[in-house]
Every structure is written in C-alpha cells, then in structure tokens.
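Input structure tokens:
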C-alpha cells in the first residue's frame, strides 16, 4: 500500500507538494489538525513564510503535536520555510520566532542577502540518483541556508559557484530532510521520490 504523507497546509505552496508526492507514488493529504497529523506516515513542511507558519501552528494547536511527532521519529521533509521550521537553532528570525526542530543544525533565515534574493542554480544532491550528470535545478526564493551542522547531520548539497559558493543548502539527519530550495515547482520529482522512499522504508 502507498504511504500516506501529509503536507502541512496552514500557508505556503501546499498544492505543489501534494501534486509532487502523488506523482511520486504516495498518497498525499493536507494536514491542518492534530487528528489529521496522527494519521500520516510522514510530513512535508512547505515553503512560504516561516514566521506566519509558526503563528498558525500555535493557532491551530499543531505546534506541540508536530514538534513531538518529529522528535518521536516521524519522517519530515522541509523546503525553504520548512527548513527553517525543522532547524533546532535559528539565526535571523523575528523576535519570539520558534522552530519545531528535528535537525541538529543552525539555519540562517533570508541568508542569501539582497543581491541574490532569488536565484536559480544546478546542484549535485547526495542521494538523488544521477544528479552528478543530470543536476537538480534548484530555485531559491528568499531562502535560508544551513550555517552549522551537528555531528549527526549529513550534508546533501552545497552551492557550486557564485557569491554563495560552498553554502549548505540540503541536509539529512535520520529521516528528516531539508532543502533551501523548492523542488516542488520545477517538475523534477527526484527529491520527493527520495522522501517517499524514506517514509516507505520505515513502514
Ligand atoms: N524567507 C521565508 C521565511 O523566512 C522563506 C521563503 C520561502 O519559503 N520561499 O520563512
């Protein structure tokens, strides 16, 4: 049976993730309530605005259940704002901004600065089949990067060239994956397939 993967549906590019997960062989469902969260095998936290998502997580009484589920081993994938929410430590957040955690990393919000606010580049991503010869086209929109990783964090991708060369933009720790960029908008399903596989392997 296909794994059921939830997409946190409070704000952000929810539909694109649902479509990419369905196209990758999962059953994808929007998650807005604790009882919906309780029914999924994995969760995607989309891009959008992390400060708004933080507020809405509290309003919808999802913050603690989701934090606890991820701490308890629920596989999670966050893109962009989702990466921010999965970071144990945050730089450049607004006053009082909280994260769910799950990754032993420090993430810097809006890290790329004005000159490169939004940009695109090609990346080799560890664990993404053939990305050395057929790179992942990565779209960054007011994106974060990973400033510091813990001993258990695997770096999956760094920017190859330009002003942000060497910056960490994809990481994995246990069954938690995060990317600074938005694979859900390019039609390249390889990152979603990788996450679906992680969720399926756990099942
Ligand atoms: N800058 C946004 C934030 O802080 C993230 C941008 C995005 O998800 N595209 O949440």
């Amino acid at each position: 049976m296909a794994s059921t993967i939830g997409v946190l549906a409070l704000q952000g590019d929810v539909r694109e993730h649902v479509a990419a997960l369905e196209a990758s062989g999962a059953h994808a469902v929007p998650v807005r309530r604790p009882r919906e969260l309780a029914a999924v095998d994995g969760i995607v936290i989309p891009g959008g605005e992390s400060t708004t998502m933080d507020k809405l997580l509290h309003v919808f009484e999802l913050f603690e259940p989701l934090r606890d589920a991820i701490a308890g081993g629920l596989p999670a994938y966050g893109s962009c704002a989702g990466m921010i929410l999965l970071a144990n430590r945050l730089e450049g957040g607004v006053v009082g901004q909280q994260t769910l955690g799950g990754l032993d990393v420090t993430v810097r919000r809006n890290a790329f600065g004005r000159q490169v606010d939004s940009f695109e580049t090609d990346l080799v991503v560890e664990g993404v089949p053939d990305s050395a010869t057929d790179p992942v086209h990565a779209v960054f929109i007011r994106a974060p990067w990973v400033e510091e990783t813990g001993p258990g964090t695997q770096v999956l991708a760094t920017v190859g060239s330009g002003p942000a060369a060497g910056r960490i933009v994809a990481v994995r720790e246990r069954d938690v994956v995060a990317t600074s960029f938005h694979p859900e908008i390019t039609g390249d399903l390889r990152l979603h397939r990788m996450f679906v596989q992680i969720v399926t392997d756990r099942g």
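Residues 47-50, 80-81, 84, 109-110, 141-142 surround glutamine (CB under 6 Å). The mean pLDDT is 96.
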